[in-house]
Write a structure and sequence with these properties.
- The protein is an all-beta fold and 180 residues long.
- The strands form two sheets. Strands 1, 2, 3, 6, 7, 8, 9, 10, 11, 12, 13, 14 and 15 form a 13-stranded parallel sheet that branches. The protein has a two-stranded antiparallel sheet with strand order 4-5.
- The longest helix has 4 residues.
- The protein is globular, with a radius of gyration of 15 Å.
Length: 180
């Protein structure tokens, strides 16, 4: 996808890698979900990886200054990373050059996001605030959310949850850790 993506309606993504040469912002200027096959969705995709260059950052609303943003009006996002291939277990990849510190935010009611796989922003912060929420899965304990960022901040009634221990290999020991 060339340029930036700031949709105002629901998006259903087929399996694959989606490269956005800029930013991906949901809800910076409003928007919301739609009914699809009996379920309310905002963005939905299985076996999907979003790759964001961060060449541009959003300049609107609570998405201002971010490469990836989920804000007011966008909930019920479901992204599942591929299980194999070059982007296996990577759901969202932010800028990977050390000079690009573009980050991600879940803000102001961007809630009920389910992201299975790594949310990878090696040089940018991941910030959650304003009652936003993200988890691995509501129904499948084998789906694991991992947040990797230069800084991870949760404030203002946010929720982040995952079942990574359940997703690890059976019989082995598992440990949850914060790496700084």
């Amino acid at each position: 996808m060339a340029g930036t993506q700031a949709p105002r309606k629901a998006i259903l993504l087929g399996a694959g890698v989606y490269t956005v040469d800029g930013y991906f912002a949901l809800g910076g200027n409003g928007g919301g979900s739609a009914n699809c096959n009996g379920s309310a969705i905002s963005v939905s995709g299985a076996n999907v990886t979003l790759v964001l260059s961060g060449k541009a950052k959003s300049n609107s609303g609570s998405c201002n200054g971010y490469v990836f943003c989920v804000a007011a009006g966008y909930s019920n996002i479901v992204l599942t990373a591929p299980r194999s291939g070059a982007t296996a277990k990577l759901a969202v990849i932010g800028p990977t050059g050390s000079s690009n510190t573009g980050g991600a935010t879940f803000a102001e009611g961007g809630s009920n996001a389910q992201i299975s796989g790594a949310f990878y922003f090696p040089y940018g912060p991941i910030i959650m605030n304003g009652g936003s929420s993200v988890l691995g899965s509501n129904t499948d304990p084998s789906k694991c959310l991992q947040m990797i960022g230069s800084r991870i901040t949760l404030s203002g009634g946010t929720t982040a949850a995952s079942e990574c221990i359940a997703a690890s290999s059976a019989g082995g020991s598992s440990k949850v850790s914060l790496v700084q």
